[in-house]
Design a protein that fits this description.
By secondary structure, the protein is an all-alpha fold. The protein has nine helices and no strands. It has one domain. Helix 2 runs antiparallel to helix 4.
């Protein structure tokens, strides 16, 4: 598949709007999915920990905003910096938690947990999170904000596992929290490296960015 055709496909406004809607709805569903844990956290932990609970929906939210800012690029240095920060957070966290969720589901299944149709739905959706983030990383300009994204992701890990607000695990993995913690921290650095390698606009993408994207 020619590279320019691939780039024009995923930069087509119709495709981006479709992905925006899918990610927006998925983000809402994700926060609903975390409803019980958010309620439990609110009742048993300090309120400042609440933003650290729903990891995957927040990653999806970052990517949804990144798509919107790709559709309507902000002007000015402040707008550009905000856009780059959201793009960096979108790629790093989407890759990280996309891989994390799939790995945890399969790890639970390997240890005897039942993998239901909902789990398979999560496998498909979270795989899509990671793939779309890597695809759109080539159209984003975020490398100078990667240290900030790395800091956020690492801080989130520290809060999750030091305060006990990490995503609820399958019962069969309750005795593997330390291993899950190390795996999660490793994914933080792996996803940041993947963002660095995949990110940065190509010259062709820069030219496309200056051209109006036709809607067919």
């Amino acid at each position: 598949m020619p590279v320019h055709w691939f780039e024009r496909l995923f930069r087509h406004r119709g495709v981006m709007w479709l992905l925006f809607i899918v990610n927006f709805l998925g983000t809402i569903y994700g926060y609903i999915w975390y409803g019980n844990q958010l309620e439990f956290t609110a009742d048993n932990y300090p309120s400042w920990l609440l933003p650290f609970v729903p990891d995957s929906p927040t990653a999806s939210l970052f990517f949804t905003l990144a798509l919107l800012l790709l559709l309507y690029p902000p002007k000015g240095i402040k707008g550009t910096l905000v856009r780059e920060l959201i793009e960096a957070l979108a790629v790093v966290t989407s890759v990280k938690y996309g891989i994390w969720a799939v790995s945890i589901i399969f790890a639970g299944g390997y240890q005897g947990d039942t993998v239901s149709w909902r789990d398979w739905m999560l496998v498909v959706s979270h795989t899509g999170m990671a793939v779309e983030a890597l695809i759109y990383a080539r159209f984003f300009s975020f490398r100078r904000m990667l240290p900030m994204a790395l800091f956020w992701a690492f801080a989130n890990d520290m809060v999750d596992y030091s305060q006990g607000v990490f995503p609820w695990l399958p019962d069969v993995l309750e005795d593997n929290v330390n291993e899950v913690q190390y795996f999660t921290i490793g994914l933080t650095f792996l996803s940041t490296a993947a963002a660095w390698l995949s990110g940065g606009r190509s010259r062709r993408a820069e030219r496309l960015d200056r051209q109006p994207i036709r809607q067919r």
